[in-house]
UniProtKB/TrEMBL annotation:
Protein name: Thioredoxin domain-containing protein
GO BP: protein folding
Residue ranges annotated for the Thioredoxin domain, each copy included: 7-142, 247-387
GO molecular function: protein disulfide isomerase activity
Record-level GO cellular component terms: endoplasmic reticulum
Coiled-coil intervals: none
Keyword line: Signal
Organism encoding this protein: Bombyx mori (Silk moth)
Membership in a protein family: Belongs to the protein disulfide isomerase family.
InterPro entries, per database record: PDI (IPR051063), Thioredoxin-like_sf (IPR036249), Thioredoxin_CS (IPR017937), Thioredoxin_domain (IPR013766)
Domain of life: Eukaryota
Signal listed as a keyword: yes
Length: 411
């Protein structure tokens, strides 16, 4: 259970804690949650001992404090685990006015973050919701740990099937192949629960040549987690050739294995095997070598994207749903092209904006869309051209068409 300690003003630093909440006195029985800090000496002690301290200065009569308390309590449950080196704490300024005056508190609630051995706080002025608070904690700690980046290895270290990733090596690592990556922070209780499960998953797939399991500590690799728009912990992403193809909400080993088996395709780049398997994945990845082969389908709808494009990432879940819709339709192929990995294709097709959605019918462009469209609209577009394709058999050519085709072949 996560604990936020509350010290009795008459006790020393090493004494036991008593419960408290903004609307409670310190003598009312309640779960051990918050650390009331009655003297500057206790603040100094916490700042020297803990890696980080997030402290709320409040008054029990403050309506904003009372409304905010459930969120602050939930943050405490996430952060204050038994072995955590971070503390969520609070100070009642009606009881300890001198302490609040020394910290120049002029409004309630005021939220200060103190780095270890740093007595100049970082004030939190953002939105008072749980996602914003957890993101602030990661960012605040990252400011202090930026110097560690130079010590991080460029090469990926892998032990027992687990690849350890950072800002310097993740881009190259995920650019080719299929990857299942956990983004986490060590102080998060949910991340701590997932850690042993994730390790077991890595061991299970350690000898699988088609998938790599990895993890990223967002407290040490802020840039990476911002690029992947990580807003919660842990965040489990399925990444294929640098592109996010899905996210898992699994909480146990069986759930995660089921997700892997659903997403994993051993021959995801081989057109013949891909089509022969009746499209085991909803979206085919097209490269320079396979472009012409995949384009032989009656209808081919291609999403031209780049991994760094935010709009492309937003479109990705919708594109997967579109692929699932037509997964059993042999005449339709939903695919995508990474314009970073397959730049020559995008240049040939004159792609000048991302994402660009092009629908081909018998290798000819019949529709071009820039940006996203609602799923129903995309389904309707494909259905319309399927009906047109059915009414116009490509083999029903005029004599002139046949003559021109033969003449072209002879040349």
């Amino acid at each position: 259970m996560c604990i936020i300690y509350e010290y009795n003003i008459k006790r020393t630093i090493s004494t036991a804690c008593v419960p408290a909440a903004p609307e409670q006195s310190r003598t009312v029985p309640a779960p051990l949650r918050f650390c009331l800090i009655p003297t500057i000496l206790l603040i100094i002690s916490l700042i020297e001992e803990m890696d980080g301290n997030f402290i709320m200065f409040y008054a029990p009569w403050c309506r904003h404090c009372t409304e905010f308390y459930p969120i602050w309590s939930e943050l405490a449950e996430l952060v204050n685990t038994k072995d955590s080196k971070f503390a969520i704490a609070q100070v009642d300024c009606t009881v300890h006015a001198k302490l609040c005056h020394e910290n120049e508190i002029t409004g309630y609630p005021t939220l200060f973050y103190f780095h270890k051995n740093t007595f100049t706080p970082v004030e939190y002025k953002g939105t008072r919701d749980l996602p914003s608070l957890t993101l602030f904690l990661s960012e605040a700690f990252s400011v202090k740990t930026e110097g560690k980046q130079s010590k991080q290895p460029n090469e990926v270290k892998t032990y027992s099937g687990m690849s350890y990733l950072n800002d310097l090596n993740i881009e190259k690592f995920v650019s080719k192949g299929q990857h299942f990556i956990m983004f986490f922070v060590p102080w998060c209780r949910a991340s701590q629960r997932m850690a042993p499960i994730w390790a077991d998953l890595a061991v299970h797939y350690a000898h699988n040549n088609y998938i790599k399991i990895g993890k990223v500590n967002c407290m040490d690799n802020e840039i990476t987690c911002e690029n992947f728009e990580v807003k919660q912990y842990p965040y489990l992403l399925w990444i294929v050739n640098g592109k996010i193809m899905g996210a898992s909400n699994g909480e146990n080993l069986d759930d995660l294995k089921a997700f892997v088996e659903k997403m994993l395709l051993s021959e995801n780049h081989d057109p013949e095997k891909f089509l022969r398997k009746k499209k085991a994945l909803p979206v085919a990845r097209i490269s320079e070598e396979t472009f012409e082969t995949f384009l032989q389908n009656d209808l081919v709808f291609i999403n031209y994207f780049a991994p760094w494009c935010a709009h492309c990432m937003q479109l990705s879940p919708l594109w997967i749903k579109l692929g699932e819709k037509f997964q059993n339709e042999t005449r339709v192929l939903i695919a995508d092209v990474d314009c970073v990995q397959s730049k020559p294709i995008c240049e040939t097709e004159k792609i000048n904006g991302l994402p660009t959605l092009i629908l081909y019918r018998h290798k000819k462009i019949v529709s071009v869309e820039h940006g996203g469209r609602p799923l129903d609209s995309l389904i309707g577009l494909i259905t319309e051209h399927l009906q047109d394709s059915a009414s116009t058999d490509p083999e029903d050519k005029t004599n002139e068409d046949i003559f021109l085709s033969k003449a072209k072949d002879e040349l």
